[in-house]
């Protein structure tokens, strides 16, 4: 988020509501730019961090090898009015339940909908 703070500084304290302008700034990638657009400007944007990428691939909802590809597939599959919610909901879910190592599948609330792609062991 340091990149976003510098971006705001560069624009006189106002974050530009523009994906291209944000990603031109050093240290601001698609994940941060979309998070800023969604949170600061309420623009439909999907911020895909490692958690969102991992969770949606394990579900079998997307089949991708990078967060950037995940963002593109999610844009195709999820209605725009839900885009801002994706990071807000799936980042903590990935941090605490669908963890990188040994996900908590036995107590997971969405186990019945999940294909558990790539999960070889879990709690
Ligand atoms: S069932 Fe397991 S792999 Fe699927 S979302 Fe839940 S924790 Fe993740």
Give a description of the structure:
The chain has 123 residues and is an all-alpha fold. The chain has 2 domains: 40 residues; 64 residues, Endonuclease Iii, domain 2 (Orthogonal Bundle), CATH 1.10.1670. It has 6 helices and no strands. The mean pLDDT is 91. Iron/sulfur cluster binds next to helix 4.
Question: Outline of this structure?
Answer:
The protein is an all-alpha fold. It is 50% helix and 0% strand.
What summary fits the major beta sheet?
none
Shape: elongated
Count, helices: 6
C-alpha termini separation:
32 Å
At the fourth CATH level, what is the homologous superfamily of the largest domain?
Answer: Helix-hairpin-Helix base-excision DNA repair enzymes (C-terminal)
C-alpha Rg, in Å?
16 Å
Query: Could you tell me which ligands this complex binds, including any ions or cofactors?
Result: iron/sulfur cluster
CATH architecture of the largest domain: Orthogonal Bundle
Briefly note the structural class of the backbone: mainly alpha
Helix content, binned percent: 40-55%
What is the arithmetic mean of pLDDT? Answer: 91
What's the CATH class of the largest domain, please?
Mainly Alpha
Spans of 5+ residues with little confidence (pLDDT < 50)? none
How many beta strands in the DSSP annotation? 0
């Amino acid at each position: 988020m340091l990149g976003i703070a510098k971006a705001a500084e560069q624009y006189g304290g106002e974050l530009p509501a523009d994906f291209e302008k944000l990603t031109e700034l050093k240290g601001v990638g698609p994940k941060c730019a979309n998070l800023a657009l969604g949170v600061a400007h309420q623009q439909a944007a999907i911020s895909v961090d490692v958690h969102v990428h991992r969770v949606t691939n394990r579900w079998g909802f997307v089949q991708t090898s990078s967060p950037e590809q995940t963002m593109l597939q999610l844009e195709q599959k999820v209605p725009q009015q839900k885009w801002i919610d994706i990071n807000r909901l799936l980042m903590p879910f990935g941090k605490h339940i669908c963890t990188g190592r040994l996900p908590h599948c036995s107590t997971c609330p969405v186990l019945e909908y999940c294909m558990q792609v790539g999960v070889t062991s879990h709690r």
